[in-house]
Write a structure and sequence with these properties.
113 residues; alpha+beta; Arc Repressor Mutant, subunit A; three-stranded antiparallel β-sheet; 3 strands; elongated
Amino acid sequence: MRSLGKKIELLKIIAHPVRIRILDELTKGVKCVSDFEEFLEISQPNVSQHLSILRTHGVIDHYMDGRLRCYFLKDPIIPDVIKLLKKDYIEELPAPACCPVTKKGKYPGKRRH
């Protein structure tokens, strides 16, 4: 089981627009470096740098197919994270009844002075 600290570290590692796009593509299946270069529109060394960071932290892995380096997801939480990031939320959560903004209700707990 992954600790909260490890989950937070994972979020820090993947929290880059290029890495999110790479991981989103990998949720669809195995990809090689040239596949990433085409849709990311960044240089091969830059793509490799992002892939290396993700691989070093165990988020992805690769295998060799001839001269092609093929990448795939390794961390099982990634598809869930990507799905959550793609979800659209239409409204904000309602303010609590005890909120000074709504001026309704009383705080349900004991107040500290």
